[in-house]
Each structure stands twice: as structure tokens, then as C-alpha cells.
Amino acid sequence: MNDTVLVTGGAGYIGSHTTLALLEANYDVVVLDNLSNSSAESLRRVAQICGRKPEFVQGDIRDTTLLNDLFSRRTFTAVLHFAGLKAVGESVRKPMDYYDNNVVGSMCLCQAMARAEVFWLAFSSSATVYGEPTRMPICEDYPTNMPTNPYGRSKLMVERMLSDLCASDARWSIALLRYFNPIGAHSSGMIGEDPNGIPNNLLPYISQVAIGKIEQLPVYGGDYPTIDGTGVRDYIHVQDLADGHLKALHGIRSRSGVHIWNLGTGIGYSVLQMIHAFEQASGRPVPYQLVPRRAGDIAECWADPGKAARELGWQARRGLQEMMQDTWRWQSANPQGYAH
Ligand code: NAD
Ligand code: UD1
After folding, report:
1. Which residues are catalytic?
2. Is 4-183+236-264 a domain of CATH 2.40.50.140?
3. Cα–ligand 1 centroid distance for 280 (angstroms)
4. Does the CB atom of residue 13 touch ligand 2 within 6 A?
5. pLDDT 10s digits, 124-134
6. How far is the C-alpha of 111 from the C-alpha of 108, rounded, in Å?
7. 52-87 residue pLDDT tens
8. Where do the structural domains in the chain lie, given as residue ranges?
9. Is the dihedral of CA 154, 219, 206, 197 positive or negative?
């Protein structure tokens, strides 16, 4: 019998790619998602790509009755926990929504797991927990006391809650996966990132400019102390990230306690480098305008991914051109995302 994994937030951007990778690796998958920021169409596409379907449960991780029913109906080996809200600006305007969804939601999930005696969990954390780092690259032991916004603080609170949980009971084994900047799409072009409204993040913005939906890209700040004055980030292909989750699943089976792994490439690219790489991959111009810095942004940020390489045998394999080509394949084949 295959192992069954519960994927919360599995209809979303990273969750759908990871669901696909799990199905391809012969896991059975149950997706729990309230579709607040996604469409069930992503899971239909996953099934088309791999010929296997996850079970889909539409519901909320804060719904204790639903969780109890689900855990008593199915036997899970582990939980991959992607569900949550992720828009930084919105988190400043609606902090309680973020603490409720991200912190309370994670707490409800862990309580239901404990009742069902499921103790293996991987949590989607973020490089945002490092706040404003002053030295690069960033290792996992870099201090995490100063995220700059409620979204980041909600992620850090969950990290701390999960660490306390592991310290209280040795049956738990939990991976805190700190993603750097996930971009790209599955190589089929059938699943990808489908943001609501005007995108917040760089790559979805660039691709909507390239497709003609938005006139030009605002480049936030040309006066950072970086290679060309624009912000530098560690962009990682979403399929590499999905593979990282499979490795982390193996990793937590053989360890107890809490384990932190950075999931990044170790390479930083500037905004201007990203624009040029995208223009090359798409053959489309990306008009842009330098504008003042965005509040809360940092100059640069890239990972030391060595710990995940040593302990999990994982490293990102896909380069910048592949990330751009795959983003463009998804965007040009699905100009309206999943809504058509
Ligand atoms: P996403 O919004 O595409 O996916 C999150 C999914 O969770 C969505 O399908 C949404 O409908 C669902 N969801 C939200 N609240 C829920 C709830 N209370 N109950 C059930 N389902 C709920 O986002 P993503 O980019 O795939 O991110 C996945 C996770 O990774 C998030 O926790 C995010 O904070 C984290 N993360 C993302 C990035 C990034 O750049 N995309 C970077 C670092 C960390
Ligand atoms: C943002 C979030 C961070 C989150 C991460 C991944 C903020 C302040 N931080 O980080 O918490 O973990 O996304 O989801 O929002 N840029 C432009 N023009 C744009 C958009 C972005 O120039 O229209 C620049 C930014 O200034 C930055 C780079 O592109 O230098 C990447 O931006 P973005 O994709 O938003 O990611 P982060 O800022 O790293």
C-alpha cells in the first residue's frame, strides 16, 4: 500500500506542484484547501499531467470537526502544510486575518494530528523570518528575531510553536522549510502561479507586462548597494522546491525533533538581470521604470543551501533560463491563469 500524505493548501501554487511530485513518486495524496487563493482547476490539471488524482477536500484548516473527520477516515503518514495567507501588504492592513489563518490554523492542524497520532510534518516557512540580514549567504542559524511585517511574524510564530511542540514530545518530527523566492512553473505549462489581481511579486508582474496585461514594471529602487542598484534575490524553480519537499519527507522519517532547511539555490540575481533573462526567454520586451524603494524591502538576500545538500541530498538543479522559459510557457498558454 502507498503512503498517504495530507497536503494542506495543495491547490495553490507551490502545493499543486508538490502534489504532482508526490503522485509521480507514488504517494497517495489528500489535498485540503479552502480555495481562498486558488482554483480546483489546478488539481484537475495535475491529474491530467500524471494520470493520477489526489483526493480533494474543500475546507479550512481551522475547522476542527472537518479535521477530526478527515484524520479518522484516512491514515496519513505525514502532512505537508502549505495552507496560509502570504501577501505582505495585505498582512499589514489585516494582521488578524494573518494570525488567524497562519498561526491559529497551524495550531488546529497540529492538535488534530496529535489526536490522530500523526507526527511527521513539513511546514512552509520563508526566508522572510531572517528579517533584514546583514551578511550573505544566509545559513539556518542566522538570527530570526526581526521579520519586518505581520506575515513574516506569523511565520516565525508558527516556527516557534512547532519547535516547542517538538521539545514537549519526542514523537514529533518537523521540518521548517525556509523558501527563498519560488518562481517558474511545471515544464508542461499546465500548472503555474495564478495571482489574484495585480501581482505583488516580481516574476508574475514581469510576465503580465510581457503578455501585455500591464503596461510597465515598476522597479522598486535603483540605489541599493548591489551589483546594479536593484534588489537581489535567490530565485528557485518551483519544481526544485517540490523535490525539496520529497527529500524533506524522507529526512523527517529518520529524525525526530525540529529541523530547519533553507530551500534556495545559493545564487542571487538583481531585478534588472531578471528582466533581461525574461526578455531573452520570451522574446518579448519588458518595459520598466525605476521608482522609489518599496517599504519593507531589503537590498539582497540569498541562501546558503549547504545544510539541505548535506542532510537531505537535495539541491536545486534548474537554472535561470529554465525558470524563465517555464514561467513564459505557463503565462503564454494561460493568459488568464486558470480562469478560462
Ligand atoms: P498560495 O496562496 O498559492 O497557496 C496557499 C493555499 O492555501 C491556497 O490554495 C489557499 O486557498 C489555501 N489556504 C489559505 N488559507 C487556508 C485555510 N485557512 N485553510 C485551507 N486552505 C487555505 O501560496 P503559495 O505561493 O503556494 O505558498 C504556499 C505556502 O508557502 C504559504 O504558506 C506561503 O506563506 C509559503 N511561502 C510562499 C512563498 C512564495 O513566494 N510563494 C515564499 C515563502 C513561503
Ligand atoms: C516578498 C515578500 C516576502 C515573501 C517573498 C516571497 C515583501 C516586502 N516581501 O519578498 O515576505 O517571503 O515575497 O513571496 O513583499 N520588485 C520590483 N517590482 C515589482 C515587484 C518586485 O522591483 O513589481 C523587486 C523587489 O523590490 C525585490 C525583487 O523584485 O527586489 C523581488 O520582489 P518580490 O518578488 O516581491 O519578493 P521579495 O521582495 O523577496
Report:
1. 151
2. no
3. 30
4. no
5. 999 999 998 88
6. 5
7. 999 999 999 999 999 999 999 999 999 999 999 999
8. 4-183+236-264
9. positive
